[in-house]
Each structure stands twice: as C-alpha cells, then as structure tokens.
Design a protein that fits this description.
Length: about 350
C-alpha cells in the first residue's frame, strides 16, 4: 500500500469501524462509540463507553484507553517511550558477531512454542512497544488482523504506518485492564512484557479472557535462574543495584547506561563473540549481552534492565503453576537458552471449559 493510501476510518474519530468492534472500556468492558463531541479539527477525538459513560481520548487514530495508571505504571510508560524514541531515532548498522538460533523475538516465540504464533483471523500483540512487530505481522499475513496494545505512548510513533495497513491497529492500554473485547481473539503473543507489570499472572489471566475457547497464547518472561546457582549469584548484585537505579531521573539513567555500555560491550559482548567463533557456542550463550549487535543496543538494554519499576522473574515450576491455575491445554514451558535468549516461554491454548478449582 502506498503512502497516499490510508485504510478506511470512522470519519468522526479516525478509528476504523473494525477496531471499534475489538476494543472495550478498560473499566467495565463495555462497548465504545464516538462521543459526538468535535475536536479542534472538526473530527470527534473521543470515545465514550456505552455502559459506564467514561470518555477516552483518541490521538492520531489511536484510542487512549487508560484508566488512572499508578505512579509506577506512569514511570514504566515514560521509560519505554524514551527508550523507543532514542533507540529508533537513528538507524545503526549491526556490528559483526555470532548469530543466535533465534534472531528476533517473534522468531524466538515461534521456535520455543513449536508452532506458528498466528492462527485464525484476529490476534493481539500484548505489549507491542512502538508497534514494529504489529506492522511486521500485518505485512506477512494480510488476511490476519492484529491489534497491538501498549502502556506507553510510543505507539503513536507508528500510528501513520498502521493507518496505511487495513489489518494493523494500535491501542494505548494497560494489560492489567486490557481494553479489548472478551472472547473475541484467536491468538495472543507477548515478549518481555508481563514481567514488567505489577501482577504478571493477573495480566496473563486477562489476556486469556480475550481469547476464544481454544485460542492460542505464547508469552516470554524473565527466568529466575533457580536452576543455575552461578547465574543466580551473579544476578543478586544487579537486583540490589535496581533498588536505587529505578529511582533515578530518566536523563541520568540514560547517561549512566551509555557510560556503562562500553564496559559491558568489552567485558561481555566481545569475549562471547570470540568464544562463538572458536566453536565454544554453548559457553558463549551463557554470557549476557553476547549477541548484542552494537553499543546502542547494549545501552538501551541497560536502561531497560535498571530502569523498569517492576521486574519479576520465574522458574519453570512457576509457569506450570499458571498452566494448572488456568487450565491451559497443549501447554509447554521452554527454556530459551538453546535459542540464544535468557528466559522462559509459556505456550498453550485457552481451555474450552472452566478448570476445576
């Protein structure tokens, strides 16, 4: 689709009619409709809940479906909006290095789950960041509709690009009060997001509510390394440092991340590359930041690692507990180490019946 072609929208809001069928009030789950009040440009820039009458803004065609986020959630949104703006502000050419088996988060989720992430006709990218993966999935699967939801306003940066694709939609919302229609979606995937929420299991349950019975879910979360005592011991001082780093002003945190990036790159990234080229691939994969392509990527990750207000980690047993609690079927929990990532993937299908207590 050319730049001059834009997907059909509701003339009053810039929100496409098909998206209005997929979104819901984050408070009461009621349906949403244009409010009828005109904005500065003569178009309606608000949606109103048909049940509780709460009003929500629309910016650049993106519904802003947030209900009183907490202070720490606002800090989370600010951190990631800043990261995406700074990291995406320049294109960088990846340096040489070794290739991990999974070279993107979508590829990792697919490889770990053992199935295609996409199924049916409509799905969710939960915690989509600025929306790049939404656009990628929409382009690869023109017959599939994908809705990206994220807490941060970085989704606005891809609003125009999404509007050019009839099957791509972006929404600003909280996964703990996800503003999507219950039981309407065929699949949902989420990479590296649930562990940055206040209540990861609650967020997981809310994603399941959006799926039809039998719908497919695939999520990646941080691992607690309870099975690797050396890594767990090395993680302890990082966790301790987060006690004060999450309180730093974003500008200072960014400066420290860029200052620390060369050290991490020299002590971890370069030695991992050397080991991989010498054939010691397994050892190389144990080294954090080994596959990172550039100083910019390392600095961005350090901001993420030390700035996110919420961080939770899980064991495989924890995720199997989620499976039991939700009645997930065809479930699998996979350690992503062999794919070049440090974390766990949980994949399965929503039960067709309510699990027994």
């Amino acid at each position: 689709m050319s730049d001059s072609e834009v997907a059909r929208t509701d003339g009053r809001t810039g929100v496409r009619p098909e998206l209005l069928e997929l979104i819901a009030c984050p408070v009461c789950c009621g349906g949403l409709t244009p409010s009828g009040a005109e904005g500065a440009q003569g178009a309606v820039d608000e949606l109103i809940c048909r049940s509780c009458t709460r009003v929500f803004a629309v910016r650049e065609g993106v519904p802003i479906l947030l209900d009183a986020p907490s202070k720490r959630e606002r800090q989370t949104a600010e951190l990631y909006s800043n990261l995406w703006e700074k990291f995406a502000s320049r294109r960088h050419r990846p340096s040489g290095g070794y290739r991990a088996p999974a070279t993107s988060h979508l590829e990792l989720l697919r490889m770990a789950a053992g199935w295609d992430l996409i199924e049916g006709t409509v799905g969710i990218d939960a915690g989509c960041g600025p929306g790049d993966s939404v656009l990628e999935v929409a382009d690869r699967h023109p017959d599939i509709t994908v809705v990206g939801v994220d807490l941060a306003d970085g989704v606005l940066s891809r609003a125009t690009a999404a509007a050019r694709r009839p099957n791509a939609h972006l929404v600003q919302g909280n996964l703990l009060a996800i503003p999507l229609t219950i039981g309407r979606f065929d699949f949902v995937y989420s990479f590296g997001v649930l562990h940055h929420t206040a209540a990861p299991f609650a967020a997981f349950e809310r994603l399941l509510r959006c799926l039809r019975p039998g719908g497919r879910i695939t999520v990646f979360v941080y691992k607690d390394f309870s099975d690797l005592w050396v890594k767990r011991a090395l993680l302890a001082p990082v966790t301790w440092a987060r006690r004060w780093s999450v309180r730093l002003p974003p500008s200072l945190l960014q400066w420290l991340a860029w200052g620390g990036a060369p050290l991490v790159y020299g002590l971890l990234t370069l030695p991992a590359r050397v080991l991989a080229r010498l054939g010691a691939t397994t050892l190389a994969r144990h080294i954090p930041y080994g596959t990172f392509p550039s100083l910019r990527a390392v600095a961005s990750s350090l901001q993420d690692r030390f700035g996110a207000p919420f961080e939770h980690r899980f064991s495989a047993a924890d995720l199997w507990g989620w499976v039991k609690a939700t009645g997930l079927t065809e479930a699998r929990v996979v350690d992503c180490f062999k794919f070049g990532f440090s974390g766990l993937v949980l994949a399965g299908r929503k039960a067709t019946a309510v699990p027994a207590p």
